[in-house]
Amino acid sequence: MQSDSDIFNLSPSLSVNLTLAGDALPVLLIDNVYERPEAVREMALGLTFNPPPNLYPGKVASPPVSKSLRTVTEWALRMANDNYLNRIPPIAKDGQRITAFREVYTDFAVVDVHPSELSPTQRLPHVDPVPIFGLIYLNQEERGGTLFFDKIGQTSQQSSQSGYLTSSDAGYRLRGRIEAAFNRMVIYPGFVPHSGHIEGDWIEDERRFTSPRLTQRFVFFP
To answer: Are 25 and 175 a contacting pair, CB within 8 Å?
Structure first.
């Protein structure tokens, strides 16, 4: 019988594929990541979530350190370096080409802000503080994947749409998408404007708290 210390054990049947979002953006898809994804979700939702220091439309929580957590972060780092970074066009940070990522940080995040309560900036696609970012979708119900956009038109801190941006508008053109799947990890270019695909009745009722959109985030540092 497995213990809680084994909760992040990887599945022996995981599969790795490099694909394109919008026929242009390279994305690494890794399906069947965890051996016990339901247990990972249950554990994560039992953590203490707090508002983040940035404009993320929800809350975040850090998991306790364990041997299996260290194993999965080391594995994620290898995936980013060996299966993604060396198979995409060169990327740079601060004018220097990135040849390897050396560190990775992971936490959990839930989206629970009602569309009518978003700030103008939260309605806009964003770019990550690191060039490459990773997510594991941990929702069996439909809670949306990730959308990529091109910035067009005038620079603005306003969106012509209310709520979460899920389609092209005057300032952003929808460029591509990643479909969510339970226990799927995606590694993608965080420097391309993107946002969660947040729509449906669940984000407007109590399900945004009782059955929230949960992801595990991986921040890769050069």
So the answer is: yes
**167: helix, strand or coil:** coil
Q: Coil, strand, or helix at residue 186?
A: strand
Question: Domain locations in the chain?
Answer: 16-221
CATH code that applies to domain 16-221: 2.60.120
Residue 140 tokens read as 């069996």
State residue 145 phi and psi, 5-degree precision. Answer: -95, -130
Tens-digit pLDDT profile for residues 109-133: 999 999 999 999 999 999 998 999 9
CA distance 140 to 81: 29
What global pTM score does this model have? 0.93
Q: Side by side, which strands form the sheet with 146-151?
A: 172-178, 146-151, 194-196
Q: Residues 130-171: pLDDT tens digits?
A: 999 999 999 999 999 999 999 987 655 555 567 999 999 888
